[in-house]
Amino acid sequence: MNTMTFIFTILTAITLLVLSVVQAAPAAPLVKRKSMSGDATYYNVGLGSCGDTNSDSEMVCALSSSLMGDSSDGKYCGQSITIKSGSKSVTVKVVDTCPSCGEGDVDLSPSAFKKLGSLDTGVLPITWSL
Predict the structure, then answer these.
(1) Is 74 in contact with 95 (CB distance < 8 Å)?
(2) Residue 66 to residue 98: CA distance in whole angstroms
(3) Which of 4, 57, 106, 125 has CA 20 to 30 A from 37's CA?
(4) Could you read off the pLDDT of 60-110 as tens digits, one per residue?
């Protein structure tokens, strides 16, 4: 056996040994994103139910009480959602609860609403996902 063959055999054996010892970390379970539809409206942003004060110029939103729950630290606080209306879309951070919203409705900051349509429209049909 020449030197090159010997080195190749040793490297192959080491590689096989390492591969047999190293185990892949288990993959995180896939989570199906929940798709919703409803209406987008807008509101004057301030101190939200998630505990932070935001402004009308930020890309933020409020979700329905049925989604947020009753606690002061709602289930979706801080999460990002992507909202689509027609060919336009916007990604916003959940910062508040909208008591008058239906489950699929989203109340947006004026700046976020403008990404989807004119404030004069007032209400836009939307789809979005958690």
Answers:
(1) no
(2) 9
(3) 57
(4) 999 999 999 876 667 899 999 999 999 999 999 999 999 999 999 999 999
